[in-house]
Amino acid sequence: LGADKIWFYKFNPNKAKPIVEDSAYSVAAVSGSGPRHLTFSKDGKYVYLLQELNGALSVFSFANGQLHKIQETTILATDFKGSFTGADIHISPDGKFLYASNRGDANTISIFKILKNGQLVSQSVVSSLGKGPRNFAIDPTGKFLLVAHQYSNEVVVFKRDAISGAITDTGRRIALCSPVCLVFGK
Fold it and tell me: Which residue from 58, 44, 73 is spatially nearest to 6, judged by alpha carbons?
């Protein structure tokens, strides 16, 4: 966050120390942007970086361990005024849509269609129906998107449309004290 960089390390799971620290190198993000989370496309050819402090969503091509920026967009609605902090980012199991959460006054989920060239097209920005959507998860079937609201103390369950990527409220809630991470197990 403070360095405004993406760090790369070689990884060898067969060693006692799997992260090869002397292999580290970095790629600079926009100064003051606060890179928070990134995710790879299903085919590994693209990297999507969510930046906490400016709401930017950067798209990079990825080959031979190198990133090349191909697009910069935002998770903010065009008419949004107020505080925000980008929080989490995930790609649908089918690889067709990208979702990003936004906290602060925004409390939204931004939905993007992923094009064949890796670039994104904004589909919509919808209310997360709570406060502080710090983390969310898409169930393995891709039918539901669950949002952990750190400040309103609940998980909101959305139904996900696989064709449009849209999410709609199921009316289901799971009451928890400050949920901040959701993970589906097998």
Answer: 58
- CA 49, 15, 182, 145 torsion-angle sign: positive
Is the full-model pTM beyond 0.90? yes
Q: Is the pLDDT of residue 55 over 80?
A: yes
Mean pLDDT, the chain, integer: 94
Q: Which helix (H) or strand (E) is 57 found in, with range?
A: strand 56-63
**For residue 58, which amino acid is it?**
S
d(CA 145, CA 137): 6
Query: Rounded to an integer, what distance in angstroms lies between the CA atom of residue 15 and that of residue 182?
Result: 29
Backbone angles phi, psi at 112, to 5 degrees: -130, 140
Distance CA(163)–CA(165), nearest Å, equals: 6
- Rounded CA-CA distance 27/139 in Å is 32
